[in-house]
Amino acid sequence: MNRLARPLAILSLLLLAGHFAIFYYHNARLYETQIFYVTTILLTLFAIINCWHLYGGKTTAAFFVIGSILGWTIEEVGVATGFPFGAYTYTDAMGPLLGHVPYVIPPAWAVLIYLVLTVSNLIVEHAPVGSTGPGRIFALSVMAALITATYDLGLDPFMAFRAKTWIFPGPPGPYFGVPSVAYPGWMFAGFVISLAFRLAQRELGTSPPAPPSRLVAVQPLLAFAGFAVFYALFGFPEGTRIAAGLALGTSVVAAAAGLMLWRPAEPSRGA
User: Fold this and answer.
1) Residue 40 lies in a domain
2) Does residue 101 sit within a domain?
3) What number is the average pLDDT over the span 234-259?
4) What is the mean pLDDT of the segment spanning 14-22?
5) 270 assigned to some structural domain
């Protein structure tokens, strides 16, 4: 299996490049329903391969099953009750619904929190995989919650008012039309899913196919940076570009500094 590690690392990088090539081209113009599926599939495949390199098969499977189930549950409750994001409704722009939630949303939550998880690890622990002591699990989950909310500084206004994938039925909120309650809601969702990921890691451990390399560790950061650059350049309304760019850019720079301090383990001679 070690022989597959490097080719799959290159494959995941190509999947990421393909995702952003389509994502930038269509989002900067006009997002179409089928593009949501293409970009979500590419990004999910990228994240699964990359996660397998860092955590091994069992923990990767747990992450993406847990992330998808919790993501769907939180969204389903959110649309039905207004908790935790406030009142909103999905349009048909993302295609068919599972309950009240488009099919592409659950895996998108799993991918987002995986990226946020890695960025948090790099910032705090200067390593792509974090430790699992109880205190660290809680602290890193809080950091993930904050980073998740900063991601929404670009996402929510763009998706609601540019891509028109969901609607806020009430009066326009104070942040470019987005209700202020949405941001504590994103913090709540980010904390819950990140905490579940870290508890799964604590229970299942890590069994990567080979010692993770910098080629593997840098990829989640590149993915997160790709979104940061997008919302800084193409965010909508235009006023969101400064807030999203600065907030996400701060996390990217801090995580990049952590990655520079990381010392990957040397592979064994027989690997």
Assistant:
1) yes
2) yes
3) 96
4) 95
5) no
Which of the four pLDDT bands, split at 50, 70 and 90, describes residue 253? Answer: very high
| 127-172 tens-digit pLDDT | 999 999 999 999 999 999 999 999 999 999 999 999 899 999 989 9
221-239 confidence digits (pLDDT tens): 999 999 999 999 999 999 9
Contacts of 243 (CB under 8 A, 6+ apart): 153, 154
Q: What is the 3-state secondary structure (H, E, C) of the chain?
A: CHHHHHHHHHHHHHHHHHHHHHHHHHHCCCCCHHHHHHHHHHHHHHHHHHHHHHHCHHHHHHHHHHHHHHHHHHHHHHHHHCCCCCCCEECCCCCCEECCEECCHHHHHHHHHHHHHHHHHHHHHCCCCCCCCHHHHHHHHHHHHHHHHHHHHHHHHHHHHCCCCEECCCCCECECEECCCHHHHHHHHHHHHHHHHHHHHHHHCCCCCCCCCHHHHHHHHHHHHHHHHHHHHHCCCCCHHHHHHHHHHHHHHHHHHHHHHCCCCCCCCCC
Q: What pLDDT digit, counting tens, does each position of 159-169 carry?
A: 999 989 999 99
Rounded to whole angstroms, how far apart are CA atoms 189 and 183?
Answer: 10
Q: Alpha-carbon distance 151 to 149, whole Å?
A: 5
Residue 267 lies in a domain: no
**What's the pTM value of the predicted model, to 2 decimals?**
0.94
Length of the chain: 271
- The whole domain housing 36 covers 2-261
